[in-house]
Specification:
This protein is of the alpha+beta class. It has helices spanning about 15-20, 30-35, 45, 60-75, 110-115, 125-140, 155-165, 185-200, 210-225, 265-275, 325-335, 355-365, 380-385; strands spanning about 5, 10, 80, 90-95, 100-110, 115-120, 140, 145-150, 170, 180-185, 205-210, 240-245, 250, 255-260, 275-285, 295-300, 300-310, 345-350, 370-375, 400, 410. The strands form 5 sheets. Strands 1, 4, 5, 6, 8, 9, 10, 11 and 12 form a 9-stranded mixed sheet that branches. The two termini are about 25 Å apart.
């Protein structure tokens, strides 16, 4: 079972939340962050390179030092204030007609090491190292990770009751997503939440933030090794997460665009596809995948439906049955010669939040030659893959909305 605890969040006063809260560090480049960041924005802490003219390198020593300086200044100025006791928090995100409600809590670093916090993606050590530096120098989890867990009726009821009250924060961001935040400070409720997770929730599933999760676990292990009087109760044994019940989450498609046809003409490429797919031209209007194993393709001003033929994939293999695997094996590798999705410069990835119009735009511009849209992976598939110890191919899942940074920070002191 998972180990969790409440924490005394460092967070903005109610009247400053819209000035402090910011998108996560990895969804903006430095120029975009500079353009967005107001005086009090958390971006000065998560992307401090923007405070230099010209913009500094993200990994320079002076950049890291500026992050520490700014975090300290934000607390001194009262733009970030620590709560007076350990609490849980409810964080809701609304996109269109759908709202997902998560609990903001601290998860245990050992649960990641022991496989109780389950992953579905590989991580890169260089990215882990970068995130470790930020946790280490700030002695804090500035930004949360994004977890899922299997539904629990009592936890759902507790969250619903909290969300029926007056929110601490409520605002609409630049993408027209609504963020709402409540504080749970009743001692009995706090104790019950801890008890339910400890006794009834058997795993967390990393939805978004694999590198931050791995980095937090490594910092916890590092601090443990450095402390001769380690007891296991220290705050550094925990890191901040927003945890959503499985039923609240929807995975958005993660699509592909490719720069060339590997020497083939358009006609030759379409003919090659017919070996493994039923290919149907759909015209100039955007065509969305109709279900699993059906793909949209845009090339030469026309949308196509590609349906994988029976026997070309293994429904008994949790990885082989994924549409990202089918597309990679039968098209990207077999026909287009793209062997490694992580390193090949001929392919790029487009989150479904941008819409399929972004795919046709990039092809019509001449930047790309062909685009593919995939039917989204389900939460059931993600959990099954994590439970069986498998790893999804790169760029398989896209979660939206992204967690807003700055609503809560966890100190490791």
């Amino acid at each position: 079972m998972v180990r969790v605890k409440p924490f005394a969040a460092i967070r903005p006063p109610k009247n400053l939340v819209t000035e402090v809260a910011a998108p996560p560090y990895d969804v903006l480049n430095s120029e975009e962050a500079l353009a967005m960041a107001g005086e009090k924005s958390l971006l000065h802490i998560t992307k401090p390179e923007i405070d230099f003219k010209p913009i500094a390198g993200e990994h320079e020593e002076r950049t890291y030092a500026k992050a520490v300086e700014n975090f300290k200044a934000w607390k001194e100025k009262g733009w970030l204030v620590q709560d007076d006791k350990e609490k849980y928090y409810v964080y809701a995100q609304t996109m269109g007609s759908r709202t997902q409600y998560g609990l903001v809590l601290c998860a245990h670093t050992d649960d990641y090491a022991e496989g109780i916090i389950k992953k579905h993606e590989l991580t890169r050590k260089d990215k882990e190292d970068d995130r470790m530096v930020h946790v280490r120098i700030q002695n804090a989890n500035i930004e949360p990770v994004f977890f899922a867990y299997k539904d629990n009726d009592e936890l759902n009821d507790i969250v619903a009751k909290a969300a029926a009250g007056e929110p601490e924060y409520k605002f609409v961001d630049e993408n027209n997503f609504t963020h709402t935040f409540w504080v749970i400070d009743d001692d009995a409720t706090i104790a019950r939440i801890t008890d339910i997770f400890t006794k009834d929730i058997d795993a967390f599933y990393v939805a978004d933030g694999h590198h931050r999760t791995a980095a937090a676990a490594r910092v916890g292990a590092e601090k443990k090794a450095q402390n001769p009087h380690h007891t296991g109760k220290e705050e550094y044994n925990y890191f901040m997460a927003v945890c959503f019940p499985e039923s609240h989450l929807a995975i958005i498609d993660y699509n592909r665009v490719v720069k060339d046809l590997n020497g083939l003409s358009g006609e030759e490429f379409l003919k090659a596809l017919e070996n493994d797919f039923t290919v149907e031209a759909k015209g100039s209007e955007i065509y969305h995948p109709a279900g699993l194993h059906n793909f949209s393709m845009y090339i030469g001003g026309t949308w196509y439906s590609l349906t994988a033929k029976a026997g070309r994939y293994n429904d008994e293999d949790p990885i082989g049955v994924l549409d990202v695997t089918i597309l990679s094996n039968l098209v990207l590798d077999k026909i287009l010669g793209i062997k490694d999705l992580r390193t090949d410069k001929r392919i790029d990835f487009v989150g479904g939040i941008r819409g399929l119009g972004e795919l046709s735009r990039r092809v019509d511009s001449g930047e790309m030659k062909v685009a593919f849209a995939l039917y989204p992976v389900s939460m059931e598939q993600l959990i099954n893959i994590a439970d069986t110890g498998n790893i999804m191919p790169p760029k398989t899942t896209w979660f939206e909305p992204k967690l807003r940074s700055g609503l809560a920070i966890h100190s490791l002191d």
